[in-house]
Specification:
EC 2.5.1.18; Glutathione-S-Trfase_C_sf; 4 strands; Glutaredoxin; alpha+beta; Thioredoxin-like_sf
Length: about 220
Amino acid sequence: MAAMKVHGNVFSTATQRVVACLIEKDLDYEFVPVDMRSGEHKKDHFLCFNPFGQVPAFEDGDLKLFESRAITQFIGHVYSGKGTQLIFENPKKMTIMAVWMEVEAHQFDPVASKLGWELAVKPMLGMTTDAAVVEENEVKLAKVLDIYEARLAQNKYMGGDAFTLADLHHLPTVQILMGTQCKKLFDSRPCVSAWCAEILARPSWAKVLAMQANN
């Protein structure tokens, strides 16, 4: 039995982030499905893993973690010798990469998640998309992507010269937005478009999407 466990839902972007990381690192793990429709993530047995009642939760032996980006960083550092090297050993390179992980978490993801909710999730649930929210956040996303375009004109990847967690953390929300009208915002920026095509084509991400398709 795998020592590592991921308690999550395959449709959760945060869960997908952790699973993609584990696959990149070629690590064995057990996936423990959490039934969010029944509110399992708000029940006591799950709250002992994450008191905020959100997926995913992660176990490695006696260590229990929550927050997907913290989990991926733990995996990247502790298992640095396995699979894809998702961090830099050089402190300067690592710090620059950390800057762009922060950018993803605080500049890109809040806007991208709002757009994903309005343009992908709401229609699926039969809810009405709020056009004003979409318009406001498309403007915000365009500004972020202008900065990404400048960054990626100088570097092949967001964190530097290799694929790292700074790129991997983007995968779930980029995947969602590429299936919406926001695709044009990525496609109209050549460096961003090439970066998206490359990271979305990674075999690890194909495996995450296959897990989703089988549920």
